[in-house]
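Write out the bound-state structure for iron/sulfur cluster.
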Amino acid sequence: MKVILNVDTCTGHGRCYTLAPALFDCDEQGHSVLLVDDVDGDLLAQARVAVTNCPEGAISIVEG
Ligand code: SF4
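---
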């Protein structure tokens, strides 16, 4: 599965890199930076938590 981060939609709430630090970091403005996009197992579980908790709907998971 692939994680997709829409950087145009991200407004920097920081939920993703707080809840899933293995997958996301932040830039100087607090916006999310995707560290890993190919996920399964525990990383996929973390990605799902990030998707659920992003207030802007900026994160998605697709087959791939
Ligand atoms: S939770 Fe969503 S809006 Fe907040 S930093 Fe992460 S991707 Fe951006």
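---
Residues 41-53 form the longest helix (13 residues).
The pocket of iron/sulfur cluster is lined by residues 10-16, 31-32, 54, 56, 58-59 (CB under 6 Å).
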